[in-house]
Write a structure and sequence with these properties.
This protein is of the alpha+beta class and 598 residues long. It has eleven helices and 25 strands. The protein has three domains: 100 residues, Phosphorylase Kinase, domain 1 (2-Layer Sandwich), CATH 3.30.200; 174 residues, Transferase(Phosphotransferase) domain 1 (Transferase(Phosphotransferase), domain 1); 191 residues, paralog of FGE (formylglycine-generating enzyme), CATH 3.90.1580.10. The chain is 25% helix and 21% strand.
């Protein structure tokens, strides 16, 4: 039986110990199942990991194997409980419960952990790698790799060896990497629980000595894995000719000072003879730090200091502000609701308005200061301060939304209708790229690597419904233009001929609508790979986005706004029917900032 064939042991609505209610099944691995759940007494979302009942049944009669797996499971809990670091996932509890499955009573041990809905580190690395983009590679090292090294060094300080470090075992909480999956941890304080002939781990990142004897590993096994992660970031997808399993990795083409230096570090970190390998994570950090600028490294250090205090501040802010309602000013577009239009917990207070807030769907919203923008025809408009999503809404977030409101949805020949209106067109964005599918009565991400990409082929109706579900709305055209001021000096939006309302959906009725002009070189990549502007917003210049606007008669309408294909081109808006969808148009959501003193 394959992992995809297995039926999850728990279903939506099941309760464990009367404290945890299952929301959904997230994933099934070789030995465990992971669920999203709600802690009932604190009303917060958590992740729950259980030992797979199928795995236990498969070992029936082999008590030594069962005891070994359970020992590894309990060891994972103990290891995570001993770590308190911003770059390591937190564990909340470890309990047992009894459930009935197929008429049988089963005892389940489970771990309750922090829930991080974001993608993994793997989604920050394009298939072609970052070696061709030195600025992007330096940023990746500063933003992700150095904090991961800090987390691993903290783990090592507790006498713990992770032994399964890889991009898929690092979750992203916004831009903050969080190390998880301690199922193979080792250390001198623990007795071996693996038979000598067993090989456990991920071959592409596994140190040679771990392959030969899992118990005969020390901290340098993690150094090897970290070296392979760095190598992966440079070269991209590991496959034939690039994987170097159990071998020293090296760059095939190191033709710049940066790549030559990184090649040297990668070879030192992945040396097959561990006596010749970099001796510690500290040594690896010192070797890598020289390849990022002092400003980049300083940003990472400041982030590490802020994260811990911010987490405490957010909790206290949430407790102190519980029950307080905020009232807002601002425009709303057609069919948009203002229910729940309130800021989330502050993560960095700046005066009366926090500069960053969190929404119910996990999105981060940036505070955009008040300003003035020039619309088509030269009309100047004042824009009060407001909050805007840092990135476009992702495939993962939109799939979560669709499944949450599933009773309101009908799917017919690839057309997703919600409340009787077209919300989304399923299918390929381009050949071989199909992010969302509908199977078994639920929506799924067809390729997990696309989870952190922006969701496209969403209509204005679908975007507005998503925004209303999470207490937000679509930004107005003026707000979007104001947000663009963080990337370049404010520019007037040019008037464009033929700015009328199309009457049919492109793709459903070919040739009957005039879609906005595509960017010259459309890209489709994770939202985190777009560079932030001065306001901290990403991806405003990539593809198009739905905004609330007005039509020629002065009534409310929807438009697609985009930056012109030439460098320095001002944004332009074309009004479209709210049921249209385009393969390169996404959206982000806005909230109005509270009034002063509220």
């Amino acid at each position: 039986m394959t992992e995809t064939d297995r039926q999850p042991a728990l279903a939506k609505g099941d309760r464990l110990g009367e404290r945890w209610e299952i929301i959904e099944h997230i994933a099934t691995g070789g030995k465990g199942e992971i669920y999203r759940a709600r802690q009932l007494n604190l009303d917060r979302e958590v992740a729950i990991k259980i030992v797979s009942p199928e795995m236990i049944e498969a070992y029936e009669g082999d008590e030594e194997e069962i005891q070994g797996e359970m020992a590894r499971f309990r060891r994972e809990v103990l290891a995570m409980a001993r770590t308190r670091h911003p770059n390591v996932l937190n564990v909340y509890d470890f309990e047992s419960a009894r459930i009935t499955k197929a008429g049988r009573d089963l005892s389940l041990d489970y771990i309750v952990m922090e829930y991080v809905p974001g993608p993994t580190l793997a989604q920050t690395i394009p298939d072609e790698g970052l070696g061709h983009d030195e600025a992007g590679l330096r940023t990746w090292i500063a933003r992700y790799f150095l904090p991961i090294l800090d987390g691993v060094e903290h783990i090592h300080a507790q006498g713990i060896i992770h032994r399964d470090l890889k991009p898929g075992n690092v979750l992203l909480d916004g831009d903050v990497p969080r190390i998880t999956d301690f199922g193979l941890v080792g250390g001198r304080q623990w007795e071996p629980v693996t038979r000598s002939h067993h090989v456990i781990g991920t071959l592409a990142y596994m140190a040679p000595e771990q392959y030969l004897a899992l118990g005969d590993t020390d901290l340098r096994a993690d150094v090897y894995s970290l070296g392979k992660i760095l190598y992966h970031a440079v070269v991209g997808k590991l496959g034939k000719g690039t994987m170097y399993p159990l071998k020293m990795a090296q760059l095939a083409k190191a033709d710049t000072p940066l790549l030559k230096g990184l090649d040297r570090v990668i070879r030192q970190a992945t040396a097959e003879d561990r006596s010749r390998r970099l001796a510690s994570v500290k040594a690896l950090r010192e070797a890598v730090r020289g390849f990022v600028t002092p400003t980049e490294a300083g940003t990472v250090r400041r982030r590490r200091v802020v994260i811990g205090s911010v987490a405490l501040a957010a909790i206290l802010a949430g407790l102190l502000t519980a029950g307080i309602l905020y009232h807002y000013l601002g425009m709303t577009g057609p069919d948009q609701s203002r229910r729940g239009d309130r800021p989330g917990p502050a993560t960095k207070p700046t005066g009366p308005w926090p500069s960053l807030i969190k929404a119910a769907d996990g999105a981060s919203l940036r505070l955009i200061p008040a300003g003035r923008v020039k619309l088509a025809g030269g009309r100047m408009v004042a824009v009060p301060r407001f909050y805007l999503d840092q990135t476009k809404v992702t495939v993962h977030q939109f799939v979560e939304f669709l499944n949450a409101v599933r009773p309101r949805i009908k799917v017919d020949e690839g057309v997703v209708k919600g409340d009787g209106r077209v919300w989304l067109l399923l299918g390929e964005l381009r050949p071989g790229v199909e992010p969302i599918i509908f199977q078994g009565g639920r929506f799924h991400i067809k390729n997990p690597l696309l989870a952190a990409h922006p969701v496209y082929r969403v209509t204005a109706y679908g975007a507005a419904a998503y925004a209303a579900q999470y207490g937000r709305r679509l930004p107005t055209r003026a707000q979007w233009l104001r947000a663009m001021a963080g990337a370049r000096p404010p520019a007037a939006e040019p008037a464009r001929p033929g700015q009328g309302t199309a009457s049919h959906m492109t793709g459903m009725h070919p040739g009957t609508a005039t879609p906005p002009k595509k960017p010259a070189e459309p890209t489709y990549r994770p939202v985190s790979q777009d560079k932030p502007n001065a306001f901290g917003l990403r991806g405003l210049e990539t593809g198009g986005e739905w905004v609330a606007t007005v039509n020629r008669g002065g009534g409310a309408a929807w438009g697609v706004i985009q930056v012109g294909p030439k460098a320095g081109s001002p944004p332009a808006t074309r009004v479209h029917s709210p049921w249209q969808a385009f393969a390169w148009v996404g959206f982000r959501c806005a909230r109005t900032a509270p009034r002063r003193g509220r």
